């Protein structure tokens, strides 16, 4: 599957740890950063794929599951460390679920928002992958 679990360097200090995400961590120029928080119990996010955009997801606080599908196989990854993230390349369906209370999901993206880049229906995604 076109994903990669990446450890973010951690600078440890008795006053608190520090991690930095720069272009040497992700293999793309960072064009957009956003985060999900206050996700209600039982709610799911994502539910789409991208034709071009790549994303790097990190659980800054708490935990959540990332369900990934490449059109043939499905994989579930739990993110729960603020120094570890998942790189999701283009052409991968993603769903985020089972958010713990207080979870914060940071998303670093390779492109600015473009609705035309989204595939929001799973049947359309499977068809896109078969082309």
Automatic annotation (TrEMBL):
<protein>
    <recommendedName>
        <fullName>Sugar 3,4-ketoisomerase QdtA cupin domain-containing protein</fullName>
    </recommendedName>
</protein>
<dbReference type="Pfam" id="PF05523">
    <property type="entry name" value="FdtA"/>
</dbReference>
<dbReference type="InterPro" id="IPR014710">
    <property type="entry name" value="RmlC-like_jellyroll"/>
</dbReference>
<dbReference type="InterPro" id="IPR011051">
    <property type="entry name" value="RmlC_Cupin_sf"/>
</dbReference>
<dbReference type="InterPro" id="IPR008894">
    <property type="entry name" value="QdtA_cupin_dom"/>
</dbReference>
<feature type="domain" description="Sugar 3,4-ketoisomerase QdtA cupin">
    <location>
        <begin position="1"/>
        <end position="129"/>
    </location>
</feature>
